[in-house]
């Protein structure tokens, strides 16, 4: 059994999010997803997400390609999460390229290219300007 772990905010869920989750799941037999908390977003992006963590978690948990979800409370707890869920691989989009290489002593760290031309930020802008 190969377990893959990935992390993200997944706010205003879109096809770029779905693509990386499918790609991550295809690398193993079990996909565990850490959904970053509202507080962590406030800390890393200076704003709270449009959807609260409970709803974001519920959306990710409802996907066929996802086996387990949890709330990611801190960027610094990656090693703990990898161990807790027995992850064999850590997957992230390449906007994070190199950022989590320090965990490669625990498991391989793989960065997939981001899906072009879509992001939560650009969607929020389009909605705001309509
Ligand atoms: N993503 C993607 N293509 C896009 C947009 C996002 O592949 N067009 C990927 C990102 O690279 C990331 C995942 O989707 O791997 C989730 O993206 P975000 O919701 O923006 O996550 P982020 O806020 O970067 O949180 O510990 C890491 C963080 O919690 C990641």
From TrEMBL:
Pfam families: CTP_transf_like (PF01467). InterPro entries: Archaeal_FAD_synthase, Cyt_trans-like, Rossmann-like_a/b/a_fold. GO terms for molecular function: nucleotidyltransferase activity. Keywords: Nucleotidyltransferase, Transferase. The keyword Transferase applies. Residues 5-122 form the Cytidyltransferase-like domain. Coiled coil: none annotated. It comes from the Bacteria. PANTHER family: FAD SYNTHASE. NCBIfam families: cyt_tran_rel. This is Adenylyltransferase/cytidyltransferase family protein.
């Amino acid at each position: 059994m190969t377990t893959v772990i990935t992390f993200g905010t997944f706010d205003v869920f879109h096809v770029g999010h779905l693509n990386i989750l499918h790609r991550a799941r295809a690398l193993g037999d079990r996909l565990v997803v850490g959904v970053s908390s509202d507080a962590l977003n406030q800390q890393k992006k200076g704003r709270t997400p449009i959807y609260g963590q409970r709803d974001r978690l519920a959306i990710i948990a409802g996907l066929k390609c996802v086996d387990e979800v949890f709330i990611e409370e801190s960027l610094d707890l990656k090693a703990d999460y990898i161990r807790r869920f027995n992850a064999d691989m850590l997957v992230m989009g390449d906007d994070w390229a190199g950022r989590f290489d320090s965990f490669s002593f625990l498991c391989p760290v793989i960065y997939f290219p981001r899906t072009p031309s879509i992001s939560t930020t650009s969607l929020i802008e389009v909605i705001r300007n309509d």
